[in-house]
What does this fold into?
Amino acid sequence: MSSEIAIKVEGLSKCFQIYDTPRDRLKQFVMPRLQRMLGFSPKQHYREFWALKDVSFQVKKGETVGIVGRNGSGKSTLLQIICGTLNPTEGMVTAHGRIAALLELGSGFNPEFTGRENIHMNAAVLGLSEEEIDARFDEIVSFADIGDFIDQPVKAYSSGMVVRLAFAVAINVAPEILIVDEALAVGDAAFQRKCMRKISELSDAGVTLLFVSHDMETVKKICSEALYLARGSVIEFGAAKQVCISYERDLFGASRKAETTQAEALVDSAELDQAILDEDLLQTNEKTYGDGRAQIIDVAITNQHQQRTNILAPNASYVFSYRAVFSAPVALPVFGMMITNREGVCIFGANTQNHSVSRRHFDEGDEVRIEFHITNHLGPGIFYLTCGIHAPDSSDGLIYLQRRMDVLIFKVGSDDGLSIGGVVNLNPRIEVIEKVL
It folds into this structure.
């Protein structure tokens, strides 16, 4: 196999035997042998179901490939064969590199073992020595963020805790190939963002990724290529954006149906002036770094009545604010903010580069409050706020005094009476002009 190829799938097919009753399964085990002994042609007591039919494709090292298709199209079967947990009926798979897989929720975990014991067991199965496991253990536990439950049996975990631990193990065993089968849909919004950020880091580091998802926006953002499966066969393999368009055209027809989000249910015309705090969005997995000369505190989103909120109504005014406290003298600092989606794509950003505040000198102990007054034109969905303070550009590049990534999570609802999609709301005015005879 070429040194540039991570995974090569050739003529892969998988047939499952479907029995109508347990009696038919027993017949199939016994009768064909007797019939052959008596010189008769054996009779088949099952129906064949071909989950995969002659699937062929290859993935280059470092590529991120999304796999899309309806439920039952063969996506999970394909990944199980690539991982080696299922044998093909026909064809073959060749993989080059250590594979870490996150397939069915909790697969590979012993429910009677503690989280600590399962970490050691799973990492050992993936090929790590005891010394390597010990060296990575703290990082795994930190990423999973399940607290004292690490020493409790996995059977006591919630589904979200199981997927946290499984993902933490999978990404910290230095995989060369990472396979994820829709498992991230179980986690909360903060953990999903944390996982997407880690997946991007692994991709940048040259890790090959196979990613199954029903979220086409995610596939378009993080995948370079995509594979579209239907009834076990390859419909299309190529550039992720084009493959997703083909899949959506087949799935939804000429016009895509609008998706109803939880935020839309929370925001209606009677509540536009009321501040809503969704407690499910209060827990974040922020990432903070900087040289420590300033600290960002009291980050908030407030409505026109100075009430804190994380549920935003369309076309309403809000203030994104934070306080900066200086612990050392700083000249000409730049204060900024950025809004990203779950995949980490910047939707909007602003800073004070040309503002008078960035032409000042601040001493130790000084404090300033920065407010960004914004009219919300975001489309429906979940978004993340990042705040940062950096020194003027130098020969060493951008130097952050402090940056708080994903410090807040917020939702945006949709307009009443309008079905809109995408990351922005351009406030369409729809006119229908009938032909006048």
Summary: The chain has a mean pLDDT of 84.
